[in-house]
Amino acid sequence: MKITLREQLIGSWTLTELIEVPVDGTEITYPMGREPKGVIMYNPDGYMSAQIMKINLSQVSGGASALDGFTHGNATYLAYSGAFHADDNKQVVSHTMYVSLFSDWMGHTQSRIVHFTNGFLHLESGEPFMASGRLVTHRLTWKRVEQ
């Protein structure tokens, strides 16, 4: 019996790479730096949670400057949780945000194209979007957490 996409996703994964791929074929960028930290968890109950952060070598200490980067265009931390749905035919997983660091994402659904290669989970944003004045897609690579 074939394992479903949902069954393959269940578990905890750590982020190994997040790249921004311009549609026009120009050079890729690393919006969360070359060594981002992140965890995504898919639970059997149909809920997921994702957190991603940019490692900032110049640590900020308190005050208003500690909140720098908490905007969509210059995010240094991203977090959301909610229900997920896996579509075996399309090989797509959809995340519906129940809570999100960005309140305007709450209630919205974002879909990701799913690929598995050599034990890694690859999630790619389906529809291109504008980032830093360029039309791009995001590609995230995750490694399953070993028990």
Q: Give the topology string: H per helix, E per strand.
A: HEEEEEEEEE
Please give the order of strands in the largest beta sheet: 1-2-3-4-5-6-7-9
Given this structure, which CATH class is correct? Answer: Mainly Beta
Number of H/I helices: 1
Low-confidence stretches: 60-73
Rg result: 16 Å
CATH architectural type: Beta Barrel
Main beta sheet, described?
8 strands, antiparallel, barrel
Under CATH, the topology can be stated as Lipocalin
Give the proportion of residues in helices: under 10%
Binned strand content:
over 45%
In whole angstroms, the N-to-C terminal distance is 25 Å
Q: Count every beta strand, where a strand is a DSSP E run of 2 or more residues.
A: 9
If you had to describe this structure to a student in words, what would you say it looks like?
The chain has 147 residues and is mostly beta strands. The protein has a single domain, classed as Lipocalin. The chain has one helix and nine strands, in the order αβββββββββ. The chain has one helix at residues 5-9; strands at residues 11-22, 37-42, 47-53, 77-87, 92-100, 109-117, 120-125, 129-131, 134-144. An eight-stranded antiparallel barrel has the order 1-2-3-4-5-6-7-9. The longest helix has 5 residues, at 5-9. The two termini are 25 Å apart.
